[in-house]
């Protein structure tokens, strides 16, 4: 079976990173059919450096600035391979990523999404493996039985660590939501989980770049991401896959409560309370109760070691 994969790389002002990303792709072997670098109106010299490679597999597409979703969507429409992966310009694949994806495709031909685990990597080179749910077999590849429920316990795949059949995206009309730069990738992953099965390898074969923030909550969104609101709305419709509904409710609840916790940490407790007492927050009762405790306790008490689990 011939497998051809198009890798979509959205590029915006990441001149110092992009060549490392592309090299990590090209080193993966023959499964990489093409690398589509979609320049989203960069103002640095990143796109010129890519063009200077003059590599037969690398195709540059220039467009006006419209955000990462529009760049990825253009890559989807321009892709010529039967499968598509997405790699941000400051992330990298590790050796063996595409080989593992090929093995997943061969081993689980009925799936529509194929993914590996990943590392979070900091600027100092430190790497931390992503969370793998306890329900998974950490020693072998497998089909994910309840992906949204598992995702609610920790993000076990990343935008850069999954591969999708191109025809699945078009058949289900799944594209990245325009105008959203945070949570847009989760929206696509949620919809794919609702539409097709996911084959997963626990091997961490991709590195997701982490930025250093001034504090734990400083760079996190303090508003409810639309992807969680939409997920909850879809889960309430009659035709939603019944085997996924409980996991979707739980995942939406996590989104509401995570936002509430960020607001609490920023001393915006009245806004947090509005989220906590909305109906979607209640579907993960233990997490809801722990978040309510955070809301009610003075901030200084939350520094006590025995309360850090809340």
Question: Any overview of this molecule?
Answer:
The protein is built from eleven helices and ten strands. With 310 residues, it is of the alpha/beta class. Strands 1, 2, 3, 4, 5, 6, 7, 8, 9 and 10 form a ten-stranded mixed beta sheet that branches. The longest helix has 24 residues, at 242-265. The model is unreliable at 212-218 (pLDDT under 50).
Radius of gyration of CA atoms, rounded to a whole number: 20 Å
| CATH class membership of the largest domain | Alpha Beta
How many strands?
A: 10
Mean pLDDT: 93
The CATH superfamily of the largest domain bears the name Spore Coat Polysaccharide Biosynthesis Protein SpsA, Chain A
Largest sheet data = 10 strands, mixed
CATH fold-level name of the largest domain: Spore Coat Polysaccharide Biosynthesis Protein SpsA, Chain A
Structural class: alpha/beta
Count of folded domains: 2
Number of helices: 11
Distance between the termini: 50 Å
Low-confidence stretches: 212-218
Summarize the helix and strand pattern as letters: EHEHEHEEHEEEHEHHEHHHH
